[in-house]
Amino acid sequence: MLEYYGQSPIIVRSSSLLEDGFGNAFAGKYESIFCVNQGDLQERYEVFEQAVRSIFASTMNEDALSYRLQRGLGASDEQMALLVQRVSGSHHGQYFFPDLAGVAMSHNPYVWRADMDSRAGMMRLVLGLGTRAVDRVEDDYPRFVALDKPLLRPVSSPEDLRRYSQHKVDVLDSILNDWDSVRLAQISSLDPAISCWNLAAEPDHETSRRMKELGYSDSLAWILTFDRLLTDTPLASIMTEMLQTLENAYEYPVDTEFTVNYLDDNKMQFNLLQCRPLQTIKKAGKSWSPIAGGSKRPLFSTRSNFMGSEVSLINKIVFVQPRPYIALPFAEKYQVARLVGKLNRLFATDRSLEVMLMGPGRWGTSTPSLGIPVSFAEICNVRVLVEVACKEEGYMPELSYGTHFFQDLVETQIFYVALFPGEDNVEFNPQFLSEAPNLFGELLPEHSRWQEIIKVIDLDSIKQSLYLDLDLQERQVVAYLTED
User: Can you list the domains of the chain with their CATH numbers?
Assistant: First the structure.
């Protein structure tokens, strides 16, 4: 087989019996491994053999096992096969990658304006390998495209456009013989040049001016907007047609991975890499509220920045306190994530618990300086997940719909909220969280020194109830407390 592929880069992918089924996608649970496939035949064989081992071993990783148990598949026969594909792309100097890649869904779970249609679908678009579209990565943002309004963005200021864009490109490096991430400036100067570069990138004159002031006179900065790609080419319309065709065939919304390569300046070649049924959120017909009467104290409210429906009464809150967490040394932030996982496993023993998990920045990040580096297995038993922005310190939620992490939230019916305190239409009153008694030391007495960082609030014991009132028409969610 390796002789057949020659030295073309390949990817070894899992192909299990339980994957990609209706209701059980297993998205991101098993490994997919790139092999740059350089060197002599024996060297390439040894790398490929290790990839095979890793993928078979991934059937026993914690995320996969937790997912199977949670979906009632713990006793099911899980047999793993492998799929080996030639990587879609072309060589640019020492790097190999497709011009464009991403994920696309025929249902858009994130509509932030009343005139948007969730049935039109969405895609997360990147330059280079699609790994940045399916994973939450540090300080980088793929282009989110609502296919009915492809130029519409959740952010609009020039500084936000600069910050919430793609800054690095994932590639296969033929010299390193490994996967790598390179800065955008390195990509802009490659020979041969990327065919769609002038359609995807625009000069960033403000950053170039700042660099010139610092003495970098020959540097030209770029920003990936993909705007001309969406206005001057049929990319969005082709994607819409493809998703509608697949959804009609499946008779169900679909989740796809794709690449796009330019054969010349005017001709695109689409490659559909993967298609699976998309587990969609069940939309509530109308908002609901608890029995009227009594005092209501809002804990938080926001418009648009949430995903989910059918939220029930919350009786426990786990709150990672932002300031103490941010002040921790880098290594100790991982310990906080592991302790959240311990609490998550405790909650699994009591199915009557409805837990809301709150913390600074991104849950599930690989970089503790951006949030809390939990795996999905460490939060899979919560009912509501809240990411709280701390702008000054750089802890910002990422509305990364389309990633494997968010697909896990959808499948598990975890309600997601991103809070941006201080912005219009956002209210957050953390005083209750600060003053409420903390049960962390009782639940995990051997780790009691961490109770200054992690709070566990049992609402039943203090005779409080927490409700989430959801208005899908107004795209607003309000969490408020009442006294029992």
Answer: 1-87 (no CATH), 90-280 (3.30.470.20), 297-483 (no CATH)
